Amino acid sequence: xxxxxxxxxxxxxxxxxxxxxxxxxxxxxxxxxxxxxxxxxxxxxxxxxxxxxxxxxxxxxxxxxxxxxxxxxxxxxxxxxxxxxxxx
Length: 88
Known about the structure:
The chain has one domain. It contains three helices and no strands. The chain has helices at about 15-25, 30-65, 70-85. Helix 1 (about 15-25) packs across helix 2. It is elongated and about 65 Å long.
């Protein structure tokens, strides 16, 4: 069981309170544990969404700049040549 370090009081609407109670019964855990699990799941989804948003932004930037795999390979070759020549 998780070690409790923070106590909090929340006001829930009746529908949310009922949903929390149903989850706790279904999972056979306390309402506190059901709430911890639900918040943890929501946080993981949010983090995945943020990662997807970052990847989408990168993809859009690459498309706007006209970047593709061949241009990236050429850039890598140039950088390696400059490093080998001691210019960078």
